[in-house]
Amino acid sequence: MSLDKVLAIAGKPGLYKMVAQTRTGFVAESLIDKRKLSVGIHHNVSILSEIAIYTLTEEVPLRDVFTKIKEKENANATSISHKDSKDKLEEYFFEVLPDYDEDRVYASDIKKVVQWYNLLHKHDMLDFDVEESTKDEEE
């Protein structure tokens, strides 16, 4: 599944999948408990495909970060939990993305990336290579 349809909603735990559009917004389904939620313009919504991580030279799209984690973990869930200590999370993230900007990427951001990766892994939604090759063939 494309990250274009996966959302993070401020104040709501986990990730959501966009299910349908409505006149005033859209309907999203929680990846945690499958509950549906009506999302309007008053919600602060982030689409995962538009999120990037700061490095010392550029901004790396979240898709690329997830791919690097997937390679490091041999397509398994992460070896650490999002609830681990700040130092442990930063050490892990440094192994995944050695040049990430430590001044602009906080421990809370790393927690979210690890938690989101594990949630997408659980739902088998980490096959971005398949999507890219399909898009290339269509063009």
Structure description:
The chain is α+β, with helices and mostly antiparallel strands. The chain contains four helices and seven strands. The strands form two sheets. Strands 4-3-2-1-5 form a five-stranded antiparallel β-sheet, with no helix packed on it. The chain is globular.
Shape: globular
Helical fraction equals 25-40%
What is the rounded Rg?
16 Å
Main structural class: alpha+beta
Order of helices and strands: EEEEEEEHHHH
Strand percentage: 15-25%
Can you count the beta strands? 7
Query: In DSSP terms, counting alpha (H) and pi (I) runs of 4 or more, how many helices?
Result: 4
The main sheet comes to: 5 strands, antiparallel
Low-confidence runs of at least 5 consecutive residues: 131-139
Q: What is the straight-line distance between the termini?
A: 19 Å
What would the keywords be for this entry?
139 residues; alpha+beta; five-stranded antiparallel β-sheet; two-stranded antiparallel ribbon; globular; disordered C terminus
Annotate the secondary structure layout:
Layout: E1 6-9, E2 16-22, E3 25-30, E4 36-40, E5 45-47, E6 52-54, E7 59-61, H1 62-72, H2 86-96, H3 107-122, H4 128-138
Antiparallel strand pairs: 1-2, 1-5, 2-3, 3-4, 6-7
Task: Describe what is shown at a glance.
With 139 residues, the protein is of the alpha+beta class. The chain has 4 helices and 7 strands, in the order βββββββαααα.
